[in-house]
Amino acid sequence: MEIQKYSHLVKNISETYTNGKVKALNAVNTLLVETYWKIGQHIVEFEQGGNAKAEYGVQLLEQLSKDLSIEFGKGFSLSNIHRFRQFYISYPILATLSQELKDNKDQDVTISATLSHKLSWSHYVELIKIENSLERSFYEKQAIIENWSIRELKRQKETSLFLRLASGKNKKEILLLAKQGQLIEKPEDILKDTYIFEFLKIPEPYHLAETDLENRLINQLQDFLLELGKGFAFIGRQYRITLANRHHYIDLVFYHRILKCFVLIDLKKEDAGYQDVGQMNMYLGYMEAEQNVAGDNPPIGIVLAREKDELQIKYAMSHTNSQLFVQKYQLYLPNEEELRREIELIYKQEKN
Fold this sequence. Notes:
This protein has 14 helices and 8 strands. 52% of the residues lie in helices and 14% in strands. The chain is globular and about 80 Å long.
C-alpha cells in the first residue's frame, strides 16, 4: 500500500464526511425553521381566521404551551409559542420569492422561498424582535451577506447599523438598502458617517491618547473588523513608510478584498484638522506609487476623529485625493431615537 495514495484516500474521505455533515446540518436547520413557521401559521389561522392584525387570546397560547409541552417536552414554552406566531406574521407566505428559487425553475415553491437556509432559528428570533419591516429586511440581508453569528447580529442591531447607514440617504436609497443590504461597489460604500466603538467599554469621562485607542482597537480586532464591515483584511499597525530618509507611520492599514485596494486609517484623539488631511494625502500618494501591485486599485484613506469642522475639512480637501475621507467615531452607543426621527423626516419630506 503506497503511503501517498493512502493519504489521498484519507483526505478524500475526510472532505466527503465534512461536506456531508455541513449539508445535513443545513438541511436540519432549514426543516426546523420551516416547521416553526408552519406552527405559527396554524396558530394564526386558527385564532384569527388568517387575520394577523386581529386581537388574539392569551389563554389559547398558554393552553397550547401546556398541552404541547406534555406531549413533546421541551421546545413549547409560552415564549416559544409567541415566537412561532410572530415568526409567521413577520414572514408571510406572500413575501417576495428569494432569488435562489427564481434561478431554480424546477424546484417547487414552498414556504422556504421566503426564508433563507443560511440563517438559523436563533437568527430569526432576533430578527422578529425588529418591528420596522425595512430594518428587519436590512438586517436579514446583511446577516446573509456577511455571514453574521448571532452575537454579531445582536451587536449590529444594538449599534443601530441600519439607521446609521440610512442617515443622510434619500427615500429611494433607504428602500434599496433595506431590500438588498449594503452593497460594496465604490469607496463611499465602505464608509459610515460615525463609527461606534462601544465594545471598547471605555468609561466616561475618558482620557485616552491616540496610541491607547489604537492599542484597544487592535486588542479587540474582531469587533473592530465587524464595525468596519465586510471585506477588510488587517495588514498592520504603525505601518512604516520612508520618504527622504524620514520615517512616517500610518496608524492602521487594511486591504479591502472586494474593492481590491489598501485602506489607510489615521486615528485622531479629538478634532481632525487640515494637517491631518495633508498627511493622509501624502500617505495615499506613497502607497499607490510604492506599494500597489498589478490589479490593485488606488488606496482609500480615512481620517477617523472624534469631531471635525465641516467647513475647514471642506476647504482642506478642495484639491486632495478623491479617495480621502474624514469620518467620525464615538465610544458609546448612538441615540437611536434621534436617528429614527431623522429617517422619518426624510420620508415625510419625500412623501408623494
